[in-house]
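Example record for the data management plan.
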Amino acid sequence: MKITKHSGSSEKQIVTGMILDPVVLAQVAAKWDKENGLFSSKWCNIVAGWCIKYFTKYGKAPKTNIQGMFEDYAEHAKSSESVDLIEAFLSHLSKRAEKIKKNLNTEFILDLAKKQFNENLAKRTLQEMEVVLENEGQEKFFQKLQDI
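Corresponding structural encoding:
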């Protein structure tokens, strides 16, 4: 399994906001891409997906219930390596949450999310267009470019 390392500080802030703040979670859920997620980090997409499922069912942020979602994931995971990585990721988020939960700035997290998601979308689109150019040629590339 290939692991891509991201500093991901902004993404971690956003996911922490999703765990703690129903306003942040509602805004992200409204834009969520079920197929690709919105984050560049696989782990952020997994945890964010849990948060969105929780929000859809209960109408609030999971807060400490994220632990139960992890336990359910760990029970059904095919790879113990991914369980260990998610556990370490959640441990890091938990430490971050302890520091910010009393002073969470919802508007700042939402601004950060908008910027981060636009950047991730631009990078994803650029990568897709590079594949089109390499595999399908210039004509198809320019057709797709006009569709954007």
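Summary line stored alongside the record: Residues 1-6 have pLDDT under 50 and may be disordered.
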